Amino acid sequence: MRVLAAMSGGVDSAVAAALAVEAGHEVVGVHMALSRNREQFRAGSRGCCSIEDAGDARRAADVLGIPYYVWDLSERFEDTVVADFLSEYEAGRTPNPCVRCNEHIKFEALLDKATALGFDAVATGHYAQVVTREVTETGPDGEPVTRTVRELHRSPNEAKDQSYVLAVMGPERLARSIFPLGGFTSKDEVREEAERRGLSVSNKPDSYDICFVSDGDTQGFLRSRLGARTGEIVDSEGEVLGEHEGAYAFTVGQRKGLALGRPAADGKPRYVLEVEPVSNRVVVGPAELLTVDRIVGDRSVWLADDVLAAAGWDQAASDWFEATVQVRAHGVPVPARVRAVVGPAAGASEEASGAAPAQGGGMEVELTGETLRGVAAGQSLVVYQGTRVVGQSTVQRAYRAARATSLAG
Amino acid sequence: MTSTPAAPGAGAYLDHAATTPMSPAAIEAFVAELTATGNPSSLHSAGRAARRVVEESREAVAAALGARPSEVIFTAGGTESDNLAIKGLFWGRRTTEPRRRRILVSAVEHHAVLDPAFWMAEHTGAEIVLLPVDDEGRLDLDALRAELAAKGDEVALISVMWANNEVGTIQPVQEVVQIARPYGIPVHSDAVQAVGQVPVDFTASGLDALTLTGHKLGGPVGVGALLAKRGLPLTPVLHGGGQERGVRSGTLDTPAIRSFAVAVTEAVGARAERAEHLAGLRDELVRGVRAAVPGAVLRGPDPLVDPSRRLPGNAHFTFPGCEGDSLLYLLDSAGVQTSTGSACQAGVPQPSHVLLAMGVPEDDARGALRFSLGATSTHADVQRLLDALPQVVARAQAAGLASSAGTSRGVSSTTTSTTRRPA
């Protein structure tokens, strides 16, 4: 296959490219330039868009003996990921820019351009596994037809697993993606592989922060881009407890940085319960008011037709099925029952076909075991069965059935 | 006496304007001199022997370019020569006439001229005036006249390149000199792309300073010269041992200088014959590209209409709907090495300031490719390009569509351009 290896300059993508080469693919390395302002590239090694990282990626490609190019996707990145980040916070929601980057940049802009240029697949250094299996179905002429189903699974490296941020890509994109690090159980193993191949990035530190927030100061970044907007911090009764410089800088479940002078009457810590963009108010309260057991999502992506098909359909929704759900990149999955709801994007005719009836539609989740705390609108919710990714949705609202009051959104 | 260098690697190398192979004679001179020891500034016999090589080289460079030996200042190449010209002339002038703060440069100069000029504006109180060009990239002389008529007594220097590195347009340097003369303004010209391609005579041109470099004409990288009239007030940029009239300190690189002189002599001596060969191939390339990709737009003067307005080894096209980096990649994988022609930052091709100055819309400017021919170029190189091009352009157009889908280029309010390059 002709494979485009996305090379960030880090050790993971370098080893992924190396493995793609060794698997016999014809590999070309591409570094994505994502920062619009090339003269203020970050000097550190934490992000994915510094000149140093572009140089490291080039050097890794040299060692592997593969062609290397830099593609400027900065305009697209600004228009999608950064713009979404700002507008979501402005709307009182909590975006995950890495999810949106995978959705709009890596597995859309990059993958589409690669496909148009004649590549068969894009390889990245993500920790997730693609499991393929053959299914035999009855074809249109009554003959059995065999097709390959690609399932997205968690990495065996639980600490590093990135299936959560990949789920958004959907089945069609998954078919053109390969994750050579999928089977690795530890990062040390990947570093060893890098060292063995003479890749100088083997000791490079991991990146954790949002790559376009240069100093890790998200609140400062939001303030610089959205401007200060002073407003009130209130408790759930409406009593004013303090001031803030912009409701957009707060996220549901946040405890730190509230800067409230007075302690709560009961002495317990207070959390952000709600961000109200219109009134520019931040509502805080005790932890127990954050607890939810019902989540509604939109913009759903389904990666497991068979699970939905097995659940069956009734009018505008699938039947409930058992799963686990995860709402944060390194959050703990909790048991739930889930169903797909046909959203405005899905036509009624798709129901009859049985295939992907609810792509782009809604999702309803009822937690059946533990509850979750601090689920904010805008977060990505991923549905698993075992290690397999079933689907993904963007949290629209989360609430507690018993109280039946919406806490977010 | 012309020696033909080895072609650079497999495939068709159509990027001679970036760098061109060293000639065998230049390599021989370089290697021979590497075995000799001697600092040309030393007074003993080894030093004297090295000095003799340097001075003979100086005489050879001067003879090839119609300059006097004392007008040749050896440097480390084009960028250094341009920096010395811009900064040295500005500072040299300011000591005697502090009100002369304006630096006039054409909008299509190489970054080695533009960036020092902008640096001077940021750090030493200079004012930059970018002189406009027409749609072929040729300097607007009326704009120069108007500028000088209005503020001629405030101008410290003028810099206009001999020929453009991207679109190959030959500039009216002689006219610029004539227009500037009554105002007593020194004129510099970056002739890096011109020497060896078109006739260059320093004295006849009337220029005060001229830049050339070794690696664009068959010499080594890292050596070049600034030709500067005697008596020109030129403040040094590099300070130290006082070599090169005290204007450019640093131990003279005898092997590189000798090799450079051999290459200049050879390139200028063989110029007429080589230019004819290059122009023939270039015209074949231009006709071929137009036939293979009817939508392609030639940028710069049309050589089939008037060959005298363009460098003989240069062709430049924009391909609508394509991104330059896609074209570059696809041609590279087809064994054809080209360039988008414009400066890269972090490996990312930027829309060319030259094309933008010529009035080319930014979207069209993104699909630019420069083809530049040199001594090793053959008919087969051109044919290889023409064979690959139709499919390459079709693919790049498909990729261009994929890239522009989902984003409305140019209407985003969140996108900020922070470039300080002239548009």
TrEMBL record, chain A:
Its main location: cytoplasm. It comes from the Bacteria. ATP binds at residues 6-13, 32, 125. The keyword Transport does not apply. It is an enzyme of class 2 (transferase). Coiled coil: none annotated. Its EC number is 2.8.1.13. Signal peptide: none annotated. The active site is at 101 (nucleophile), 211 (cysteine persulfide intermediate). Residues 160-162 are annotated as: Interaction with tRNA. It is found in: Cytoplasm. Residues 220-285 form the tRNA-specific 2-thiouridylase MnmA-like central domain. It catalyses: S-sulfanyl-L-cysteinyl-[protein] + uridine(34) in tRNA + AH2 + ATP = 2-thiouridine(34) in tRNA + L-cysteinyl-[protein] + A + AMP + diphosphate + H(+). Catalyzes the 2-thiolation of uridine at the wobble position (U34) of tRNA, leading to the formation of s(2)U34. Belongs to the MnmA/TRMU family. This is tRNA-specific 2-thiouridylase MnmA. It comes from Oerskovia merdavium. The gene is mnmA.
TrEMBL record, chain B:
Residues 403-423 are annotated as: Disordered. Its EC number is 2.8.1.7. PROSITE patterns: AA_TRANSFER_CLASS_5. It is an enzyme of class 2 (transferase). Pfam families: Aminotran_5. Its cofactor is pyridoxal 5'-phosphate. The keyword Iron applies. Keywords: Iron, Iron-sulfur, Metal-binding, Pyridoxal phosphate, Transferase. Residues 13-385 form the Aminotransferase class V domain. It catalyses: (sulfur carrier)-H + L-cysteine = (sulfur carrier)-SH + L-alanine. The keyword Iron applies. Belongs to the class-V pyridoxal-phosphate-dependent aminotransferase family. NifS/IscS subfamily. PANTHER family: CYSTEINE DESULFURASE, CYSTEINE DESULFURYLASE FAMILY MEMBER. This is cysteine desulfurase. It comes from Oerskovia merdavium.
